[in-house]
Amino acid sequence: MMEVMIQEMYVPDSAYDQRQPYQLIYLALLENYRTFCRHKLSILFSKTSPIRKGWLPNEQELDWSYEQVEFSFSYPIEELMLEIANLILDGGRSFDNENWMNYHREKIQKILQKNDLSTMLFELPQPEREYFEYDLRLLKPLGLFGNWE
Predict the structure, then answer these.
(1) Which of 80, 81, 86, 84 is nearest to 66 (CA)?
(2) I want to staple 75 with a disulfide (CB 3.0 to 4.6 A). Which of 19, 49, 82, 138 is the partner?
(3) pTM (predicted TM-score)
């Protein structure tokens, strides 16, 4: 089902279009999130594990998931998409964590200092652009995108 949705939303413009679509970046984060939580449960329910503690203070499944893919992308739009997907999946839980927010804010600012957001968006296929722009609009109150839109 998910593969069909992704295929419908992302059709490469050419055979040379090697970047990862937004939906696959989301899926990578979610799959890592799932892997982390499964590991935590296997330890928690293991009869032989000496580490039968629950969650450690400040341990975040999304942070671990993000770290697994953070340096996996080659194109600025992919890097921006990773940052946006991460902020969306966080759901605002970490927005008051100044260090966390500053880290992601700086990454977004570096991408946008070197690349024009409107140009990057224009190059996306229409369904993918609409999907991505929706998430950008949700995050607009954070002031990350300058005068976009």
Answers:
(1) 86
(2) 19
(3) 0.82
Q: Are 132 and 121 in contact (CB under 8 A)?
A: yes
Note whether 19 and 77 are within 8 A (CB).
yes
Dihedral through CA 36, CA 42, CA 48, CA 53, nearest 10? 60
Q: Nearest 5°: phi and psi at 17?
A: -75, 95
Of 148 and 108, which is predicted with more confidence?
Answer: 108
Chain segment 82-106, per-residue pLDDT in tens: 999 999 999 998 888 899 999 999 9
The stretch 59-70 carries a mean pLDDT of: 87
- Which has the closest alpha carbon to 115: 142, 88, 80, 82? 80
CA distance 140 to 149: 10
Count how many residues are written for the chain.
149
pLDDT at residue 47, rounded to an integer:
67
User: Taking Cα atoms as reference points, which of 142, 86, 80 lies closest to residue 112?
Assistant: 80
Residue 4 has pLDDT above 50, yes or no: no
Cα 35 from chain centroid (whole Å): 16
